[in-house]
Amino acid sequence: MTVPALGLILAAALVHATWNFLAKRVQGGAEFTWLFSIVSTVLYGPVTAAVILFQRPTFGPAQLAGLGVTIFLELFYILVLQRAYRAADLSLVYPVARGTAPMVATTGAVILFGERPGPVALAGAGLIIVGLLLVAGNPGRLLEPAAARGITYALLVGFTIGSYTLWDKFLVTDLGLPPLVLNWAVTAGFSLLLLPAALRRRTEVGFIWQKRRAETVLMGVCFPLSYILVLTALTFAPVSYIAPAREISVLFGAVLGARVLKEPDFGRRLTGGLLIVSGVIALTVG
User: Which end of the chain has the smaller Cβ count within 10 Å, N or C?
Assistant: First the structure.
């Protein structure tokens, strides 16, 4: 993996951990998703229009169908993720979800795209997975009902992340969709699909906007930005390297969970985070 790709992934990891922290703090659902999607669609609209005007990407049936699949996958992902955060801690859900995703994506990259990561890169992916398990915490805690529900949702989230990462790699490389256009289509799709739910729950929507306006706007900025950075890296780097390297965001998430949300066991989670960083370095040189 090249230095530019690693720089993009590090920036994406920080932004990604930030918006997951916001999602945990708000603990919203369809109403919150609709609100931040409206913010994203409006804020990124002018830049997306400029990209379409100057790059003139193809929008044939394949591209439009591909965007439709992505919209539904990511909507499912964000709604299940918020349900997971209502069931369990950020420092439990986030590592499990992020740990499942690279295993799905890397396996799929080998099978579908014929990618062959070297032994050092595979060792790095292994270090990342061990670090994620360490961050996840005490095995006995995982048997608690709330934790079990959170982990079930987190595993589902991780599988969905891995699936849409592979799919979006195909969209930006084989079908030529610019990352910014893809992400704008996703938030615009969220806005349309969730509009009936938002109208039915307009009281809840108004309450979230009144009480959580700052978090909503920041979420609207960060949610697309983190994945735009990842998709940009995917245009010139293998998905089997990018998908595991993204998990450095768990280190940032552990810090936010411990220092801001006052979640326990910061030392253990920091150790797991350092293993993740070591794994990313192995991926970079391997």
Answer: C
Chain-centroid distance, C-alpha 109: 18
Counts of helices then strands in the chain (DSSP H, E): 13, 0
0.70 exceeded by pTM? yes
Question: Which are the contacts of 2, defined by CB distance < 8 A and separation ≥ 6?
Answer: 236, 237
Angstrom CA distances, 184 to 8, 38, 187, stand at 19, 10, 5
Q: How many CB atoms lie within 10 A of CB 175?
A: 17
Give the three-class secondary structure for 95.
helix
Q: How confident is the model at residue 201 (pLDDT cuts 50, 70, 90)?
A: very high
Question: Around Cβ 206, how many Cβ atoms within 10 Å?
Answer: 12
pLDDT digits 0-9 by tens, 46-100: 999 999 999 999 899 999 999 999 999 999 999 999 998 888 877 778 777 877 7
End-to-end CA distance of the chain: 7
Q: At what angle do helices 3-26 and 61-87 cross, to 10 degrees?
A: 50
The mean pLDDT value for 14-27 works out to: 89
Question: Which residue from 228, 177, 229, 197 is spatially nearest to 69, judged by alpha carbons?
Answer: 177
Look at residues 53, 43, 73 and name the one whose alpha carbon lies nearest to residue 186: 73
* Cβ proximity of 96 and 255 under 8 Å: no
**Contacts of 99 by beta carbon, 8 Å cutoff, 6+ apart:** 128, 129, 132, 133, 136, 158, 247, 250
Residues 8, 238: Cα–Cα separation, whole Å: 14
The closest of 40, 81, 7 to 182, measured between CA atoms, is 40
